[in-house]
Description:
homodimer, mainly alpha, DNA-binding, 2 domains, 202 residues, 10 helices
Amino acid sequence: MATRSAANLEKRRAILDAAIRVFAERGFNHCRVSDIADEAGVAYGLVYHYFKNKDAVLDEVFLERWGLMLEVIEQAQADPELTAREKLAKVATFIVESYGHRPDVMQVVIVEVTRQANTFGRRHWATIQRGHDGIAQIVADAQARGELRPDIPPSFAGIVFYGGIEQILTSWIFGLMPAEPDDRRRAVEHLVETLCGGLDAR
Amino acid sequence: MATRSAANLEKRRAILDAAIRVFAERGFNHCRVSDIADEAGVAYGLVYHYFKNKDAVLDEVFLERWGLMLEVIEQAQADPELTAREKLAKVATFIVESYGHRPDVMQVVIVEVTRQANTFGRRHWATIQRGHDGIAQIVADAQARGELRPDIPPSFAGIVFYGGIEQILTSWIFGLMPAEPDDRRRAVEHLVETLCGGLDAR
DNA sequence: CCGTCGATTGACCGATCAGTCAGTCGGTCG
DNA sequence: CGACCGACTGACTGATCGGTCAATCGACGG
Lengths: 202, 202
């Protein structure tokens, strides 16, 4: 029975991983459930044995990854040892390294879910919002400590920070910028430096 | 004949405007061509008289708006009278006011085209890129003049700037932030101030 | 008036695809 | 060994929807 359920989980995982690859390559709307089954080397019907429907597969891909991001954001936010810059760098690094490790997952999360104001985006509205709130809280805390200037609304700063990261990932997804390890490290540095230090010459 | 062709253009426009409303409300992938025809008060087949296919309708909605944006960006970039802050504010104001005036158009442009790394996004890759390049050029010029610090790559700064705007619009589209005229003006101010001045306390 | 031609109509066709389901297989337990 | 049960299969169905096209309308010129 333990073997059975372990084998089950492996099959489920195989289907999920196949779905990520297929969604990333052809887009959720332009792939067929049979593509997922073929990619996983599994019969068509088995997808429906493990998942309610096609939407549920995408939901799970998204929630799995976004959940990890939320943990990192909320953990960084609560850490009293870190400066705002360090907290923001930590969050940005996690997202950017998620891309380095699994670009397909991040592409699906961003392109197929986060950015769809209709359909999927709307369904996960609250979960996405939690991430933005966490980042805004990092800014708000730092403002209260006098570390960051108080005249920019934290929610606004959070939106720009997150928007910046998303656009960086999008450039990588499009293949418009290189995304080698060094590029990724520099992207985090530049993002934090731009937002905190500002572009103005000294 | 003049009347005829004017009437033609009006019908075409009516279909295009109907399509914008329908795309914004239900999303390109989840609406039917018959929805567009119904919304325009026109027979199904007439859509195909004026447009090659469903994709072509979306293409035109996108290109029409993005073309205006490109003009503003490239004009601002070339204006020797303006500071970098003024140029960025000009671009941001145009985009933000485009949203104020026609939120549905901007929603379609961003959600249905710009953010689709697959399918549509790929087709308009070069056009989208021209916008990013223009913004990057504004930064590069200012760096050459010593107005902005030289150690952040211009293309990178442009990406963060554009990503910030897009995320602001997305928040408005989701209804997560108010988008009244005052909010819009402040959004531009805060964005430029954040990017140029930086968040660090003085 | 009538012929021409583009605008307009909407029924229809064909392709696609999500989801179903009747059945097979193979391991486990009594 | 046989009954049971859940994993697994994939052909099939029903619905959706993009795109076609033959027919009609109506303005205009001759």
